[in-house]
Amino acid sequence: MAKLTLDDLRKLRDSKKNEVSKRDTEGKEIEVIIGMGTCGIAAGAKETMDAFLDEIDKEGLKNVAIKQTGCMGFCTYEPTVEIKVPGMPDTLYNNVNTDIARRIVHRHIKDKKMVSEYVQDRPSIDIMENK
Question: Is the pTM of this model over 0.70?
Answer without folding.
Answer: yes
